[in-house]
Amino acid sequence: MKRILAWTVPVLLVLGTAGLGAAGWYYSGMVIDPSGGQNSYPLEVTEATADQVTLKGGGDTAAPGTYGLTWKDGNATLGKVISTGPGTVTREVLKVRRGELKPGVRGYLDRWVWANEDPESALGLPYKKVKIRSELGEFPAWQTEGKSKTWVIAVHGRNANASEALRITPAFHRLGMPVLGISYRNDAGAPAGPDGKFHLGATEWEEVAAAISYARSQGAGGVVLYGYSMGGGIVAMAARKLPKEPIRGIVLDSPVMDWNGPIEAGAREQGVPLWLASVGQFVIERRTGISLAELNHVAHAQEFRMPVLLFVDDSDTGVPPGPALEFARVRSDLVNVVRTQGGGHVGSWNVDPEAYEKTVTDFATKLPMASL
Where in this chain does the record put each AB hydrolase-1 domain (predicted)? Predict the structure, then answer.
């Protein structure tokens, strides 16, 4: 029996360690492997008329405000909730933009409103496609028109694209500020990083630096950096790494200010034990060479030197707002925080577009602009 135990225990330890490592590898991949964005359609249209639609399924279909409904070959803009029933929500239809909205259509509720579109097709705003050169190659971007010498550089979230910034583009257009919607490494159509993995802002900020150089080459005297979700973390890293000039201010919408929060939130959503999330964090660092401690912008809050406008939604379960709120508390001298309720992750605009845009406009007009 002792002989059996003598070799059985080490074998079990090896097998347990291997299993733990495999699980950590799998979970780390959920964080750092590009997935190409939304690829499922959890909602079913059960009724549709010219001015309202009834949706079945999903967990956030009754969220307040304005949203897009996107399906395989179509898109509609939805307004307020009209009524709710057992497992269904009926919402106002503001506009069917593409395709036919009819019973049987399967789609998803789209916080971007205009998924995978450009400023002209979505908003009727003139724009041009441009290439931004970084050390990895040429990165596609779009650029709207404007006479201001202060540009906005918009950075989308993880597995998203520049369309995420279309919601706020009209507000800056009214101010005459050009908006540059950029891509970064591992985006569709953009160069891949050396290892093909997301580095959660640790290297992606270099594309923001390249975008600033491009803007300045086109006559910009200053920039406002605007980041959503992981894009907020990328913007935060750029703000820490780059000289204050020419960054006049930054806007962060549901930003990842500390990756421990969303990694643990993702574990809970997937039913993964929190201790395994810790293993995943360890594996993430080993697979990418990044330091999650270095990406904790709350711990590095004293490195920020420019005004910050911060949006968080208290219903956000994907990126819990605690770290961002702590960042705002620590740097109350720089940060103006706006809290919404019911919008979820990057949903503060959707809750009340008019109020959101007014806040952004007020923030932008108070910054030291090169020329408005």
Answer: 151-262
CATH of the domain at 166: 3.40.50.1820
Overall size of the chain counted in residues: 372
Which of 90, 110, 130 lies at the terminal end of a domain, its last residue? 110
Per-residue pLDDT reduced to its tens digit, 258-270: 999 999 888 887 7
Question: Which region holds residue 72: left if phi is over 0, alpha if psi is between -120 and 50, else beta?
Answer: alpha
CA distance 216 to 70: 36
Q: Provide the angle, in degrees to the nearest 10, between the axes of the packed helices 260-270 and 274-288.
A: 130
Check residue 2 and give its pLDDT: 41
Number of other CB atoms surrounding residue 329 within 10 Å: 12
Residue 215 dihedral angles phi and psi, to the nearest 5°: -60, -40
Report whether pLDDT(6) > 50. Answer: no
Separation of alpha carbons 201 and 292, rounded Å: 10
User: Which segments of 218-372 does DSSP mark as H helices, in order?
Assistant: 230-241, 260-270, 274-288, 322-330, 348-351, 353-365
To which residue do tokens 């041009």 refer? 128
CATH number at residue 85: 2.40.10
Q: pLDDT digits over 316-370, tens only?
A: 999 999 999 999 999 999 999 999 999 999 999 999 999 999 999 999 999 987 5
Q: Taking the model in full, what pTM does it have?
A: 0.92
Q: Which two tokens stand for residue 101?
A: 């909205």
Roughly how many angstroms between the first and final C-alpha of the chain, as a whole number?
83
Q: How confident is the model over 82-92, as pLDDT tens digits?
A: 999 999 999 99
Give the distance from CA 348 to its chain's centroid.
Answer: 12
The predicted pLDDT at position 34 comes to 93
